Amino acid sequence: MTQTCILIGAPVDSGQKRAGCLMGPAAFRVAGISEAITGLGHSVIDRGDVAPVAHPPMAHANPAVHHLAETVGWTEALTKAGRAAAAEGFPIFMGGDHSLSLGSVAGMAAHAAALGRPLFVLWLDAHTDFHTPDSTQSGNLHGTPVAYIAGRPGFGAFPPFPAPVPPENICMLGIRSVDEAEAQALIPEAVEIADMRVLDERGISAPLREFLDRVRAAGGLLHVSLDVDFLDPAIAPAVGTTVPGGATFREAHLVMELLHESQLVTSLDLVELNPFLDERGRTAKLMVDLVASLMGRKVFDRPTRSF
Fold first, then answer.
1. Is 227 in the active site?
2. What's this model's pTM, rounded to 2 decimal places?
3. How many Å apart are CA 95 and CA 304, to the nearest integer?
4. What's the Cα-to-Cα distance from 172 to each of 125, 144, 273, rounded to whole Å?
5. Is 272 among the residues known to form the active site?
6. Which residue stretches of the chain have pLDDT < 50?
7. Which of 60, 67, 98, 223 is catalytic?
8. Which of 43, 64, 90, 114 could be a cystine partner for 139, CB 3.0 to 4.6 Å?
9. Active-site pick, 70, 227, 278, 289
10. Looking at the DSSP assignment, which residues form a beta bridge with residue 224?
11. pLDDT tens track for 278-299
């Protein structure tokens, strides 16, 4: 099945404090994302980079929160861009830090609601990103998207989320760094968390297949949010939030191959790539290779030898 992939650059750098993610969309383009997708028979429309809606400075009761107005502006712009793109094809949001998902998933939720279908979210990340602006101690809003997506209170400065995603429709894969406030907030929720302990014991395919079965049974749309720190920093160093023990090269490609075979994915985030921290573009190239696996490339698609 061929897709019309719509590239949306989101040079968001407001959700954290380490500069460089704004260069992400350019790095993905230089690493050949369009060529990788078209080489598999799909078509690509590059919409260029989105600009945030301008807002005057906003204060928050939590003094740690920074760049609130800018992040709200990005959320509004990406919600609009994402919803429009979803009506035309397969949106790929090229970030930018993970606060871009405040807008990208909102756009997909609005699109799913208009179709009368449930939205599911696969969160490929070292972190749960379940803080609210009230609970974050760092003030980094890239740690809040899943809370916003799930409809947690505390996002009064942001547009109301169009159709909050039920926690049971969210699966987090590869988790290995969770703040105490997030852990306590997640305890009563039905979010599926396949952390690295689960993946070590069960492998990476079993929990993913189970989640995909639920998406399929519900007739859902599936948004995938891929953070560079899902990957082990030994193979993907270009991220400001490195956490040892992440997914290996083969595990990551297996996830993408299984997602392709499911034919359930309808939109994608590529986030937290900081080219300033990369080594000759190796992380950008790996992320593009993973996109290619999601779109149908087989990494080891070789004929079996007989002896």
1. yes
2. 0.96
3. 39
4. 7, 14, 19
5. yes
6. 302, 307
7. 98
8. 64
9. 227
10. 122, 268
11. 999 999 999 999 999 999 998 6
